[in-house]
């Protein structure tokens, strides 16, 4: 009987995928298909959840089959992540205007990314204090205990290293190894390696224009090839989101979410406040924030559901260039840098809130000015090198908690609501990099305001 019910559940998922295929054939826009996939996934997940219960074997087996589409889609995003980060940074050097704007552009992007992360830390601290969050008040079950042990084990090597040693670890001793994503700091290592090649290209360009043009043709060709692969993967987005959301909602422990509702609410309050900060930056740049929200919404939805900043990179860059009017060079820089530097949600709000929650358990007053200022500084510095594909928030938390001499094992208390919070964190990460790109382009004069203000800007990945 269980086998037949599992088969029925899989057939229903296939039928829903067929509905999305029909929408594609009727030339319904990509954005609307993504929203449709989200809605269908949530609805189907709720039906499965209440029909079987979260622990039912039928549901476990069904979700296992769903993962072929959902988890398979995420793995394909991971497949293209590192090549895309590498070629996006490298191609950015061939697209920027060499001169005084180059240094100004890079400095502005980094300043906004790191500066907003420091602000995010302050917002996270305020939210945790305001909601009186305390990790010691949470009853830890088997899952939380196991998660805590895993985090403690992962932090063993990090805690033994000094800050200078951790910074050295960001450097790509073997860039080909880092292109595989083998290390937790592989993303920033790939960015650094690509930047070295980019500066080498600029040096060649000053000395030998003809050779530089040949190099540029090769880089552009590889970029086009990688983007071709990316577009193939992105065609699966509505189906991937449908399967991911169906599995996530169906297996969510609503009782745990209810019991930890204060923590979830506090997290999303902080995320919302930080999103408002981003809009204030857009407004201060002389741009309409409402227009901005309308144009970035599909990309943020994708980031929210996929929980992958790296997976959202293609749409991030497309949104900036095709819909917001940002130059290609700045869009590539801000999008790629934003994967490993200054992630406001994963590297800013999350570790800051955890630190404030955990501090009372070891007798530290989180309201001490010295503790708050130190925490904000540590969060800002630690935001370099946070991975953009899964696990980034955990890595950031380990770095911050270790630096603050707080017990990292207590970070496992949020495992039951981790996926729910991670959705909002990822969307904020992506929005932060787009905000940096828009603001930088505006300041450097490389923003096409006609594209930004038009209501009929190019559709995202029309496929």
Question: How would you explain this protein's 3D organization?
Answer:
By secondary structure, this protein is mainly α. The chain has a single domain, classed as Proton glutamate symport protein (Orthogonal Bundle), CATH 1.10.3860. It contains 20 helices and no strands. The protein has helices at residues 2-25, 30-52, 57-95, 100-130, 142-159, 163-168, 175-178, 186-207, 209-234, 237-250, 254-259, 261-284, 289-306, 313-323, 328-340, 344-358, 369-382, 392-403, 418-444, 449-453. Helix 5 (142-159) crosses helix 18 (392-403). The chain is globular, with a radius of gyration of 22 Å.
Query: What is the overall pLDDT average?
Result: 83
Q: Main sheet, how many strands, which sense, barrel?
A: none
Query: Count of DSSP E strands?
Result: 0
For CATH, the homologous superfamily is named as Sodium:dicarboxylate symporter
Helix content: over 70%
- Listing every helix as H and every strand as E from the N terminus to the C terminus, the arrangement reads HHHHHHHHHHHHHHHHHHHH
Q: What's the N-to-C terminus distance?
A: 40 Å
Q: What is the CATH-assigned architecture?
A: Orthogonal Bundle
CATH class: Mainly Alpha
Determine the strand fraction and express it as a percent band.
under 5%
- Number of helical stretches of at least 4 residues: 20
Low-confidence stretches: 141-145
Radius of gyration: 22 Å
Overall structural domain count? 1
Class from secondary-structure proportions: mainly alpha
The backbone outline, from C-alpha atoms, is: globular
In terms of quaternary structure, the protein is single chain
Quote the CATH topology.
Answer: Proton glutamate symport protein
